[in-house]
Design goal:
- By secondary structure, the chain is an alpha/beta fold.
- The chain folds into 2 domains: 105 residues, Nonspecific Lipid-transfer Protein, Chain A (2-Layer Sandwich), CATH 3.30.1050; 289 residues, Rossmann fold.
- Helices cover 48% and strands 17% of the residues.
- The strands form 2 sheets. The protein has a 7-stranded mixed beta sheet with strand order 7-6-5-8-9-11-10.
- Helix 4 packs parallel to helix 7 and helix 10 packs across helix 11.
- The longest helix has 19 residues.
- The termini are far apart.
Length: 431
């Protein structure tokens, strides 16, 4: 009971608010949970330095895969548990953790995927905003233009700094092994596509997603007429210029045309079709539509070669119902097929796989070479107006992909397609 005359203020002094919690205290639960998951590592060895300089080691010291992480902010643990690989990437981009070897860290996470599932995929509540954002980035005609601009219109000056002289932004094929330069390996990849579609001098070819014109240049040199489709004004400008130089240099009278056009609006028919790592950007809702266009645009007896990244069959369902770092920050609206999903979607349009050529290890090498070239040009990239967060994002992106190929979560395949026999004979789908 209060004594007479006791003021309200004096009666409340006993319940003064606690001192603000330190960050370590604030994130104690999430730190404890994630460290508990790391304690179960079965493959690889991880040295983790906490923000208070305490060093923890996990996994098997004798394992050849060794990774190091220096956590600079306790909030990283909460970000990872809430948002999975997206939170892990975002905290790296913000500079809240560092490592001398990003690829090793990401490979270690992949090898221990089952143990670290909660950390890789995040909580349902924590990831719902990302899922909604991905869902609203559908690759309709207008959505495709917006999504392509988000990545490819960073500028020709940016990409030309670190891509090889062919300006190929897709996996090379090191047909001659390590002695081969990236440029020669890119040309080997393109030649393999031309061979796959049986491209003969004078044939009229279509490239869906022509990029900066690398395939189109080799097709012109092969004596083909070639039409390329892109949604990037930057790419069209670059490709037009390079291809005109090829015509002048070779005296090749064969025609070329680079169109700023959605693939769904193309109406002509072609002897052969190529599409190099464009399918990943189509989006699952439009896979059937994409293959119907390929079938309609391909003449009877013609071949189409689609080079695409595929995800392992056992990972597809989980991947399909979530969203990841690549979809959020690099290729909005994108979606990888599994091999069986790719073939089923092609079959729905009357196309069958005549041949397939997988070379995922070559993509891992390509990505590492890109990373090295990119980091050699950091000062020039800064001068283009990009900041430290952008540099970190691209390093994470390149090594995130490389780790996936090294660990065989993903692969890259050239699928050679033709009309199924019944359709081939009647040409029923070709208007």
């Amino acid at each position: 009971m209060n004594r007479p005359g006791q003021s309200l203020l004096s009666r409340l002094t006993f319940s003064r608010p606690d001192r603000p919690k330190s960050k370590q205290q604030q994130y104690r639960a999430s730190t404890h949970t994630l460290l508990g998951l790391l304690a179960q590592l079965r493959s690889g060895h991880l040295v983790l330095t906490l923000p208070n300089k305490e060093i923890r080691e996990f996994g098997n010291k004798s394992d050849q895969l060794h990774a190091e992480i220096q956590v600079l902010d306790w909030s990283v643990f909460k970000q990872v548990l809430s948002h999975g690989d997206i939170g892990f990437a975002e905290s790296y981009i913000r500079g809240e953790w560092n490592t001398p070897d990003l690829k090793a860290v990401l490979e270690l996470a992949i090898r221990n995927r089952t143990i670290l599932e909660k950390a890789i995929y995040g909580s349902w509540l924590g990831s719902i905003a990302y899922r909604l954002r991905h869902w609203f980035r559908d690759n309709s005609k207008s959505g495709s233009r917006k999504n392509i601009h988000a990545h490819y219109d960073l500028g020709n000056a940016f990409y030309s700094l670190w891509l090889d002289p062919t300006m190929s932004y897709s996996s090379a094929w090191f047909s001659e092994g390590d002695k081969q330069s990236l440029m020669d390996a890119q040309r080997a990849k393109i030649k393999h596509i031309l061979d796959s579609i049986h491209a003969k001098p004078g044939d009229r070819l279509l490239e869906i997603g022509c990029g900066w014109g690398g395939f189109m240049e080799e097709a012109l040199r092969n004596g083909n007429q070639v039409t390329g489709l892109t949604l990037s004004a930057e790419q069209k400008s670059f490709a037009d210029s390079r291809l005109q130089k090829v015509v002048t240099e070779t005296g090749n009278a064969q025609q070329f045309e680079v169109r700023l056009q959605d693939y769904r609006d193309c109406t002509e028919r072609f002897d052969g079709i190529a599409s190099v790592e464009m399918f990943e950007a189509v989006g699952e809702n439009h896979w059937d539509e994409y293959f119907q266009v390929v079938a309609n645009r391909l003449k009877a007896g013609g071949r189409a070669c689609i080079q695409t990244i595929v995800i392992a069959e056992d990972l597809f369902d989980r991947y399909r119902h979530s969203t990841d770092f690549i979809q959020q920050y690099v290729f909005p609206g994108g979606m990888l097929p599994s091999p069986s999903k790719f073939k089923a979607a092609a079959a729905s349009a009357g196309l069958e796989v005549e041949a397939e050529f997988a070379f995922g290890s070559d993509y891992a090498k390509t990505l590492c070479l890109w990373r090295d070239s990119f980091n050699q040009k950091i000062e020039e990239i800064y001068r283009l107006g990009f900041d430290e967060a952008f540099i970190r994002l691209w390093n994470f992106y390149l090594m995130y992909c490389a780790a996936g190929f090294f660990e065989k979560n993903i692969d890259v395949v050239q699928y050679t397609l033709k009309h199924q026999d019944a359709i081939h004979s009647s040409d029923a789908l070709c208007p």
